[in-house]
What we know:
By secondary structure, the chain is an all-beta fold.
Amino acid sequence: QVQLVESGGGLVQTGDSLRLSCAASGRTFSRYAMGWFRQAPGKDSEFVAAISRNAGSTVYADSVKGRFTISRDNAKNTVYLQMNSLKPEDTSVYYCAAKDSLPGSIIAYTQRDEYGYWGQGTQVTVSS
């Protein structure tokens, strides 16, 4: 089992940047593929970005492609989401998620129900 704690959210202005972090504890972090999702009030959960367990593959939602970058540091048991050129529509609670993956897997998972572990979320608010 793995525990996930997000941090780095806050209130920023349009065009600003933020870096979210998700620190993992428990089982070996490098066995997990990781993802970021977000959910705004009154809206469904939305996939944002994902990275394979070995960081060999990354996938992004079209809405964030070119602005957001997912990365991981297995030595620090942390996955990051660098968010640049933020827009008001990026306002959401951002959640990181972990999926236990097979050794050598290069799959970055985009579906919410593929993930078995979730953090508590961190609020990102972008003012116009």
